[in-house]
Amino acid sequence: MPFQKCIRCGREYEEEVRYTCDCGGLLEILYDYENLREKFDLKVARKREFDLWRYEELLPVKKQVSLKEGGTPLYECNKLGKELNLNLFVKNEGANPTGSFKDRGMTVGVSKAIEFKQKAVACASTGNTSASLSAYAARGNLRAIVIIPGGKIAYGKLSQALIYGAKVIAIEGNFDDAFEKVMEISKKYKIYLLNSINPYRLEGQKTLAYEIFDQLNFIPDRIILPVGNAGNISAIWKGFKELKEIGLTDRLPKMIGIQAEGAKPIVNLFEGKDKVFTPIKNPDTVATAIRIGNPVSYEKAMAAIYDSHGFAASVTDEEILNAQKILAEKEGIFVEPASASSIAGLIKLKNKGIIMPEETVVAITTGNGLKDPDIIVKTHKDKIINVKSEDVDMTIGKMLGEI
To answer: What global pTM score does this model have?
Structure first.
């Protein structure tokens, strides 16, 4: 049976509705790994449909609610990889049902809510979490409540939460204010909280590690990904460690977390600019999905970075938007700005010599580009050629002559 263990004091809890230890520490889900060695057979699993539930023996709940999440493509990016002198792969989480990696956590989290006989679920969100929670709640016949920072959520994501039928509450302030409020209401009204502080949700997100190993058939040198509330980097690291625990590999990747320059408390701590973790009071970045100044899972994220001998770095909004353009133009992969931070960080760290030539790197892009299209239209208006209808032929001819 799975159980919960505090990462700070080590206290253990049986399965129950709980988000933190009595000491205030975060919880993680652990298993009898000796038993899982005997129970899980990758050859048998590979005969199943390629989605998240292929690895059902390694998850803490039976499938209750699913939209066929997971099984996302892993693209070999030869053009960009050659320019960077790397073996580069992009794991495109924008291919999930609601367009982001959050679906991995929500299928497990909402399934657990049903197992716990909960009637309603809630989250604070900058966008993707609200979209995913709302979809899976609708699928599972649960009420969904979403608290968002008013005016600071991309319409592509907000529209999803609204159409799925969630009750959306916009408040003044930022994500951290919204998270504080959702924590209050979840306790007062006994609504099941599904932000990344929920350890069961992160169990779904760890399957990214399983899939990368499943698709490559080996462990890459490095995994690089955006960091917002910091649950995903720790979840993926946990997934890789579990592959080693059950005897499927004897090596582990280095984890690299990338934050935006205007929202980088983890990077500040990693670089020693802050001696203790210090939240950013007014985080600001074009990458709305990682515009978080007080990531709840920072302790888990720091452990993943240090334990894996990894790294943390920040990138500017200009670098993010440039990387978004590069990935689209060179590899045909369109991702939202937050996702492009992994590519921006990859380019930056390769140029600095931190990522070495010919390493195998998997960059995780966390959300579809259509989640946040407004910034593209704003920054690419000059690419639209406005002509009269009678001038189209001449314009095309001129363009072809330039090729």
So the answer is: 0.96
